Amino acid sequence: MKEPVLLIMAAGLGSRYGGLKQIDPVGQNGEIIIDYSLFDAARAGFKKAVFVIKEENLKDFQDVILPKAGKHMQIEFVFQTLEKVPAGFNVPEERVKPWGTGHAALMGKECIEGPFAVINADDFYGREAFEKIYQFLTQAEETEILPCAMVGFQLKNTVTENGSVSRGVCETEGGLLKNIVERTRIEQRENAIAYTEDEGKIWHDLPENAPVSMNMWGFTNQFFAELEKDFARFLLEEVKGNPLKAEFYLPFVVNALLQKGKAKVEVLTSQDKWYGVTYKEDKEMVMAALAKLAQEGIYPSPLWS
Predict the structure, then answer these.
(1) Confidence (pTM)
(2) Beta-sheet pairing, 116-120 with 263-270
(3) Which of 73, 121, 180, 195 could form a disulfide with 22 if both were Cys (CB 3.0 to 4.6 A apart)?
C-alpha cells in the first residue's frame, strides 16, 4: 500500500475573519495553526502533505511552511481555480466564488496516488485525531463499497463565543455514520447550543455531545473518481439554478454515497477540543490555549525546534 498523504484545504481567504487567516501567527514563536496540524501529522506517521491554495498566495505559503515543516515532511502545492472543470463545462459569467470543499479535495488527485486524509488549514484538530486517521488509512483496502472515515468531535468542543459556525451534525450507529446534515449557523446561546435556518427567527437546540464533522476525512484513492462524477452532476444540475453561489461541499458527496449504499464511513471519535480562528476575536483565545498546551508539554516550544 502507498503511504497516506495529508491534503490540506487552504484556498479560502476567510471573509468573516478578515484576512489570510491560514498564515496568521498564533503560537508563542510565530507558529500558525497549520504548523500544529503538520506537527501532529508527522508525529502520527504522515510523510507528505499537499496544500490546496490560490496561486496568488503561493509565495506566502512557501515562505511560512517550507523553512519549518518542509524540513520534516515533503510539501507540495496545488492550485484551486474556477477554470478547473470537466471538459464540456464552462464557468458561469461573473462567477468569482470558489466551487467549494469538494472541488478543493478533487484538486489533490494530480499528486496523490494512495489513501489520503483531508483537513482544513485553519482548524486545530489535536494529536488524537491524526493518530486515528493515519491508523485507519494504513489499514483501509479498496473495495466495491468505499471505505471512508471521519473524525467526529463533540459539538461543545467546536463552537466559538464570537459568532456562528458551520458544522456537519452527524447521526451515528455502531461507530458508523448514518447521516450528516450541514448546519450553516450554529451558535452558543445563553442556555444551549442551537442552530437556525431562518436568520434567527426560530432556534433549535442541539445536544452538546452531538458528533460533528470538522472536515477531517479519510479516503482511499478510489474516492477521487466519485468526486469527479459528482462534481460533473453538480455543474449540470445545481449550478444551473444558482450559477454564482452554488457550492460543492465535500460532506454532501460523502452523504450521497452513504445513502446509496456505496460507502461505509467509520466515525473516529476525538475528545480533544477544537480551536480555530473563524473570527478575529477568536485569535486571543487560541493563542492562550496553545500556550497552555506548550506549558503542559504536549507541544515543544518552539514547535519545530
Answers:
(1) 0.92
(2) unpaired
(3) 121
pLDDT of residue 281: 84
Strands 193-195 and 204-206 turn out to be antiparallel
Which phi and psi angles does 271 have, rounded to 5°? -95, -5
pLDDT tens for residues 218-234?
Answer: 999 999 999 999 999 99
Burial class (CB in 10 A: 0-12, 13-18, 19+), 56: exposed
E strands, 133-285, are: 146-154, 165-173, 176-188, 193-195, 204-206, 211-219, 263-270, 275-276
By CB neighbour count within 10 A (0-12 exposed, 13-18 middle, 19+ buried), where does 143 fall?
Answer: exposed
pLDDT at 16 over 50: no
Grid cell at residue 10 = 487552504
Place of cell 507528505: 48
Label residue 3 exposed, middle or buried (CB < 10 Å: 0-12, 13-18, 19+): middle
Q: Is 160 a residue whose pLDDT tops 50?
A: yes
Contact between residue 4 and residue 118 where contact means Cβ atoms under 8 Å apart = no
On whether the CB atoms of residues 175 and 233 are closer than 8 A, the answer is no
Burial of 178 (0-12, 13-18, 19+ CB in 10 A): middle
Secondary structure string (H, E, C) spanning 48-82: EEEEEECHHHHHHHHHHHCCCHHHCCEEEEEECCC
For 89, other C-beta atoms within 10 Å of its C-beta total: 12
Rounded to 5 degrees, what are φ and ψ at 150?
-135, 135
User: Residue 132 pLDDT more than 50?
Assistant: yes
Cell of residue 212, nine digits: 460533528
pLDDT attached to residue 17: 38
Q: Facing residues of 65 across strands?
A: none
State yes or no: pLDDT of 57 exceeds 70: yes
Q: Shortest CA distance to 124 belongs to which of 296, 295, 283, 4?
A: 283
